[in-house]
Design brief:
seven-stranded mixed beta sheet; globular; 2 domains; 21 strands; eight-stranded parallel beta sheet; 31% helix; Urease, subunit C, domain 1; alpha/beta; binds N-(aminocarbonyl)-beta-alanine; TIM Barrel; binds zinc ion; 472 residues; 13 helices
Length: 472
């Protein structure tokens, strides 16, 4: 059905203006004043901001990890995402050495197809590079539209790949037009430090942080960036947590390397002291990389403001406290890593970032949506308010006050890492391709309504981009 959004203040990554938005056939058909309202449902956005639906470039839904599986799947996870103003997720498809990539991708399609309530794409983990993998890449990119690969530099003997694999992935990505993502921590040294800590009887959650010091994130980030420069390729560093890593990204960018960085809400507002909470509560705050000393937060905020970091992902990877985080009660190395964030990504950035004057409203939209759309081949279908773009739209009340709590959240887990945090600013209604998913703070969407997104090749800042523009 045709819809007309009136009286809202439209925010894009570039502009702030007042106009009406006409939606037809799931797309934005007109932006202007006095648009034809006949036959359209009129939505009054008075007092609200109207911006493009969030794109969460980093989620782990229904993912096996540490002997268990994340609690939120593509249904509960995308419902929670929608409540929080996110209309697209890009989830990490795990792969297994020796198995065709195609099988893993089919597994991820099966997990998501009937369940997602918003649109979604996949990144693909690269665990090894050999003839079989190289032969499959054209299918992955051209047929599946998966144009970003993830290499883990940590989680030794589980996900970790060696430097040769990373380097050859960078070269292949350059050749095929894909973006390489890295989890940058030095897994070998972490492995040594964690074994030593356990042997010495240091088994509490805080040792998760103490055995993964920021130097090891900085070192791996710098190594990946250097290899990217050598391969003349492109790199996206996920979940940047500390000053050491920000410095390495800034250094690479100053040399003109195509290196991009993402941080996550948890690193902006929580710190290492949370891991020391009594009664094993510290386990709720076990992420890799770990939460850092508080002073790092200011460095991250400044990097978002200055553009040295470009995106905010959630790294949604949720486990119950009881029954899952519990697995590591006697040994921190057995605590499944990750937390529930998908729902509060926008609220936290808006409340702590925009309202506290750390970033502008336009930067907020860029960080939560537009930049991810550009980097991951979804722009301008997603990531902006423009004629022809999908009508993925958030109507956001910037004055609404809320206390984040497990009592009211929509994720499937038994705790919230931000419990008790007051935030100002909340989505009122959220549309995905012109249909309400959230209407007046109620879920009205449908599992299976989300569409799989085949994404375009990486072309930001490369000569290819200019050629493509010229040839149109
Ligand atoms: O602790 C985290 N980040 N868990 C999710 C997996 C990953 O490393 O991104
Ligand atoms: Zn309709
Ligand atoms: Zn990671
Ligand atoms: Zn992750």
């Amino acid at each position: 059905m045709k819809k007309l959004i009136k009286n809202g203040t439209i925010i894009t990554a570039a502009d702030t203006f007042t106009a009406e938005i006409l939606i037809e056939d799931g797309k934005i058909s007109q932006i202007g004043t006095n648009l034809p309202a006949q036959g359209a449902e009129v939505i009054d956005a008075n007092g609200c901001l109207v911006f493009p639906g969030g794109i969460d470039p980093h989620t782990h839904l229904d993912m096996p990890f540490g002997g268990t599986v994340t609690k939120d799947d593509f249904e509960t996870g995308t419902i929670a995402a929608a409540f929080g103003g996110t209309t697209t997720v890009i989830d990490f498809c795990l792969t297994n050495k020796g198995e065709p990539l195609k099988n893993s991708i089919q597994t991820w399609h099966a997990k998501s197809k009937e369940k997602a309530v918003i649109d979604y794409g996949f990144h693909l983990m690269i665990a090894e590079i050999n003839e079989n993998v190289l032969n499959e890449l054209p299918y992955v990119i051209n047929e599946e539209g998966i144009t970003s690969f993830k290499v883990f530099m940590a989680y030794k003997n589980v996900f970790q790949a060696d430097d040769e694999t990373l380097f050859r992935t960078l070269i292949s990505a350059k050749e095929h037009g894909a973006l390489v993502m890295v989890h940058a921590e030095n897994g070998d040294v972490i492995d040594y430090l964690t074994k030593k800590a356990v042997e010495e009887g240091n088994r509490d959650p805080i040792y998760h942080a103490l055995t993964r010091p920021p130097e090891l994130e900085g070192e791996a980030t710098g190594r990946a960036a250097k290899l990217t420069g050598l391969a003349n390729s492109q790199l996206y560093v996920v979940h940047v947590s500390c000053a050491d890593a920000v410095e390495k990204i800034a250094e690479a960018r100053s040399k003109g390397f195509n290196v991009w960085g993402e941080t996550c809400p948890q690193y902006l507002v929580l710190d290492q002291s949370y891991l020391e909470r009594p009664n094993f509560e510290g386990a709720k705050y076990v992420w890799s990389p770990p939460l850092r000393e508080k002073w790092n937060q200011e460095v991250l905020w400044n990097a978002l403001k200055s553009g040295q970091l470009q995106t905010l992902g959630s790294d949604q990877c949720s486990f119950d406290f009881k029954g899952q985080k519990d697995l590591g009660r006697d040994d921190f190395t057995k605590i499944p890593n990750g937390g529930p964030i998908i729902e509060d990504r926008l609220s936290i950035l808006f409340s702590e970032g925009v309202r506290k004057g750390r970033i502008s409203l336009n930067q907020f939209v860029d960080l939560t949506s537009t930049r991810a759309a550009k980097l991951f081949g979804l722009f301008p279908k997603k990531g902006t308010i423009a004629v022809g773009s999908d009508a993925d739209i958030v109507i956001f009340d910037p004055q609404a006050e809320r206390v984040i709590s497990v009592e009211t959240h929509h994720m499937a887990v038994d705790y919230n890492a931000f419990e008790g945090m007051k935030v100002t600013g909340e989505p009122v209604s959220v549309l995905s391709r012109g249909e309400f998913v959230i209407r007046d703070k109620q879920f009205v969407g449908k599992p299976g309504a989300g569409q799989y997104l085949k994404r375009a090749k990486y072309s930001v800042n490369t000569p290819l981009n200019i050629n493509q523009t010229l040839s149109i």
